[in-house]
Design brief:
There is one protein chain. This protein has 11 helices and 11 strands. The N and C termini lie far apart (65 Å). The chain is of the alpha/beta class and 290 residues long.
């Protein structure tokens, strides 16, 4: 890992990444793509040492409260967070200034901060987003080797449910010829129903590959699924979008189960919910004039 001082922390849409790079080792990670212009090894985590100070400065200047998002590029609960606690510092600031938060992670380590997440959710809205891709635990350890398994993440979702914190699951990517089975989708959906998730985000049953992450993904296919790289190249070439041959069938299973259990499944509706700020301490004005 290495430290840097940055000039800003919040994007125009109020998203932030307090780290750059990741140690989870997921074989499909889009953040490895060369378009993101990493100037260091992906596993050499960049630590933004002044992230908390910049966040506080930004929130102090904001005229209107909003949702603050994190985790879109780099998981805020990778291994070094346990030692550094930078995400916790940011949550303390968000709670202190009365903003909402939504956190995207693959890690059950987020449970460390459930006290702060509950405090935020009491004032406004806190949403935990959890990625689930692979129901089979052994396969999950291959695809996402350095992070808690799907079952462990499911148990974390149950804890959030029991503490009144809403959750949204990212059911993606689905890797052709690896985890693109009805059994896999049904298993994950069963977890989602049991955990009472608010919504599930899926962009189609497949995966995207581009320069940078394609090479890493194919390297891992050679290690764990000999011969599969050649099948990918034969079918998809250098396409960006790689849909499962059974994409329509799998998506129908997904959609049907979501509708049956009153789970938001349209991505645009999920994002609308994630971005909507709520002030639970405000009350409607009552007019005294009839």
């Amino acid at each position: 890992m290495h430290e840097v001082t940055v000039k800003g922390i919040l994007s125009a849409k109020n998203g932030m990444n307090i780290y750059r790079g990741c140690s989870h080792g997921c074989i499909y990670c889009d953040s490895r793509s060369t378009c993101y212009q990493f100037k260091h090894e992906f596993e050499d985590i960049e630590i933004k040492t002044n992230a908390a100070k910049l966040l506080e400065d930004a929130l102090r200047r904001k005229k209107h409260k909003c949702m603050i998002g994190t985790g879109a590029m780099s998981d805020p609960y990778m291994h070094i967070e346990q030692k550094l606690g930078n995400m916790r510092k940011c949550l303390e600031i968000i709670e202190n200034y009365g903003f909402g938060v939504t956190v995207l992670t693959k890690s059950a380590k987020i449970l460390r901060d459930i006290d702060l997440l509950k405090k935020i959710n009491e004032k406004t809205k806190c949403v935990v987003q959890m990625t689930l891709t692979t129901y089979d635990e052994d396969l999950c350890r291959i695809i996402e080797p350095n992070v808690e398994t799907t079952y462990e993440r499911f148990k974390a979702l149950e804890v959030f449910r029991d503490n009144g914190i809403p959750t949204v699951v990212w059911l993606c990517p689905i890797l052709p010829f690896i985890n693109d089975t009805a059994e896999n989708i049904k298993g994950i959906l069963n977890y989602c129903v049991r955990a009472g998730v608010k919504g599930i985000i899926n962009f189609g049953m497949g995966v995207t590959l581009r320069e940078g992450n394609r090479e890493y993904f194919y390297k891992k296919l050679d290690e764990h699924f000999p011969g599969l790289k050649e099948k990918y190249i034969s079918i998809y070439g250098n396409n960006y979008e790689l849909p499962s041959p059974d994409a329509d069938i799998l998506y129908d299973i997904f959609k049907t189960e979501c509708i049956k259990n009153n789970i938001i499944y349209r991505a645009e509706e999920c994002f609308k919910y994630l971005n909507e700020f709520e002030d639970k301490y405000s009350f409607p004005q009552i007019s005294l004039i009839e």
